[in-house]
Fold this protein.
Amino acid sequence: MSISRRKFLGWMGAAGAATMVGKTATASTNKEFPGYPGSHGVLYDATRCVGCRRCEEGCNKVNELPAPDRPFEDLSVLDEKRRTDATHFTVVNEYKKTGGEAGPVFRKIQCNHCLEPACANVCFVKAFTKTETGAVVYNPNVCVGCRYCMIACPFEIPAYEYNEPLTPRVRKCTMCYPRIVKGQLPGCVEACPMEALTFGTREDLLKIARDRIENYPDRYIDHIYGEREMGGTSWLYISGVPFKEIGLREDLGTKPAPEFTLGALSGVPMVIGLWPVLLTGIYAINKRKEKIAAKEQSEAVTAAVDAANDDATQKLSASLEKAEKDKTSAIDKAVKKALEEAEKARAEEEAAKAQAEAPESAQAPEEDSEKDTPQEDA
Amino acid sequence: MMQKKAHVKQLAVWTAAAIMIFFAAEAVASVDTSTADEQPRADMITIDGMKTFGPLERASVEFLHDKHTETLKKDGKDCLACHIQDKTSGKLSIKFQRTEDKDRQTVMDTYHKGCISCHNELLSEGKSSGPVECAECHNDKTKATSNWQEIGMDHSLHYRHTKALDKKCETCHHEYDQTTKKLVYVKGEEGTCRYCHKEQTEDNRIAMRQAAHIDCVNCHRTRIAQNKSAGPVECAGCHDPKHQAAIEKIADVPRMEMKQPDTVFVKAQPADATDTEAIRMKQVPFDHKAHETYNDTCRACHHASMKGNLTGCTDCHTLKGEKEGDWVSLEEAMHRSKAGESCEGCHKEKQTAKECAGCHGSMVQTATKSPTYCNTCHLVPLVEKTEGETTPAAAETEPVTTETAADALAARVPTLETYPVEDIPETVTIKSLSETYQPVELPHRKIVLTLLKGIQGSKLAQYFHTQPGTLCQGCHHNSPAAVKPPKCESCHGKAFQNDQPYRPGLKAAYHQECMGCHKQMNIEKPASRDCVACHKKK
């Protein structure tokens, strides 16, 4: 089966157009990922948290993490703002309340288990997985230790085992994935004496959060942090003070992390499909240009040569004519001179005749040699 | 060589000492000034009168009024040094050395000439004086912190004024006569200043701030000049919190003489007088006399005006709402929980008091009210008219009731007690969860009696805590009031049950209830994180 050049280009063009149409359709349907149905999450209620650090203790226990430098009963650690690290998957920070009633407020930090996690999105070996339980889990067996996940996470959660020389891992909260698949509660939730942490399906948690806000409008800020932030997270927060004041970023927007790179990456198939067509086209146009140029050049050369030949012929005939003219005038001159001389001679002869006799035939050969010379020059 | 080295060393030591002394002196000086400035003041006035002529070219000037009054007094000068007196009324203009803001240049010159010339004069006399250079006044530096506090004419203060002025209400109260364009006194039409004088000057009604200073301060000043008892004339006298607290409070203020009723029925007025069917809700007998003592001003309820007939509220707030009432219907006007002027709004505010907040703080704020709750206030039914009674016109406009408001109020008996003390368990041992700690001994009776003591003085609380068990329901919620209510674990068990996702587990239920109440009632001990304060270690 033979494919004509025209047919092939037609197919390629259609393929390119199809990729563009597909992309437009995605944008226009307002498609979003609301999370796996029935997936789990945790609701953190800042108005209930008393900052007792039992969650930290529970986390440490179930994840078999090394014993902390200072015991969990030591509340003086709350004097400074802490972050999660390779041996602390969750920490509680204390914030001073601005205005209103006295007393500090607290915030528990851990992985928020985004619905569309940035860490999983950037990982090129797929070490992170958003599971259907809601937990974002990590597979150390495939991890190459590039730590892109640590840079990508907008909440700065994944931590690296820098003191592990041979098999360093990225560590973070797993929402106690091994426990929740067994029907158990995450360690922190189970340890919380105030139920400041509520475990349940994300749908239920949103309902509970909305219910609390509606029932106690004076107690809560009318917002569920994590419902929409970064495309939604499985860990949700409600609070009586602005979220900014308990160290939660309010500048993240509602776009899921993968969407930031979606535009650039969706261009790839289009580039692959359309570039051969484009390049071939450019090549063909260039080729055709060259051909036309070559043709035009040769024509121009022919024309120039012809013109030069014509010119030369004209010049030659002109000069020949001139030579002929010169020759004729020279002959005339010579004839005239000869005639004059002959006249003079005849006059002198006539005069001499009277005196003495002179020869006439010597003049004639001289006349023949003068006539031959201009002809040889031409 | 050695000698030279020693010399250098000595020199260094002396230099260091000199530097240290210099800095120490500086530090002492700075500390001195800062402590002097840190005293909060109530007399800070921002001079930015030039604003009326466009944006300010230089920073506004912070002016300490009382400081000037004091200094001038020492020099034997009085208010007239800065304020111009009106020839006819004898009142002083509250503006500096002028009665009105003519134009930009004049106002600017008034301040510059007035202030600087006086400061220069004092300087030439070798006395301490104020700034004379531009930036010394026009800068963004704050000289002191302000503790300025608004002052209001409460019942006590009003009574003291009426007494001192021999009930000459016209001294302060006036109305504007549209025809003569003059201020006149109309007996019986007296109202709060703020009904007309708002935050900003509107039309020909000057702002409240101007009105108060022109009238109050001038009157006080005149009386002082006459050696009569008078109120303060300095800023701090009225606006400093310490001075305010020192203002004499009359405990038993006689009632205002405004022909107000002792008791009254709060009832709707039908738009059409013949449409008696329009009103179906029972009437509310209202103890006006008692409520006068619960509030500091009449304005607390009568927020817009006190003119008109005795029904007051229904003039503007009709069943459907009128433009005059900002489209707020009578139902909303009485029940809006966010509005302090409404019955329920004010009562809700009372619930935030420390004694009440422990129970009421954890109650659902937006819960639908039960019909019995409505009947606490809506007590007196309207008598349905029979066929024969329709003739008199008066009977049609006034809904007929069988009893007077006073009778209805007298018939209402407040609940003063809860269950007999011996029926209230003295301690309750919470042991069902005991793992790490020993069981908790809850001082149950002490808690009940404390809560009971909190409501004992409040008639409002007693009317609404209708049953002996109502108080118990603060903790023993969501079940009928009873001497022996169901146990906590009857409802609260394991946390996060699928069918009861809203119900806390038992452990959290205990902690939320105890700690929530302590937090609302500002009870510091036991602290939330001091586990062993309640739970003894095993």
